[in-house]
């Protein structure tokens, strides 16, 4: 049987280490089909951009935030997929814009 608590602890440790050691951060925004906006903070790791924080601002004005401190809830979860800048329709944004949404 898979030890889900161990897997969760390892996942939290991985994202936390990336967040705490990051020297370079990238910020993006993406509009979804339902009119919501996604805000993403990503850091490089082993040649990939890994999402360490993401915030969804729904079309109804609800804000859902995910990071190593809060991986998932009934509304969603922190993606475990690396960003592919050639495939993902993301718009680069200033860090300040991301922070305004994140700390709202």
Automatic annotation (TrEMBL):
Highest taxon in the source lineage: Bacteria
Protein name: Uncharacterized protein
Source taxonomy: Bacteria, Bacillati, Actinomycetota, Actinomycetes, Kitasatosporales
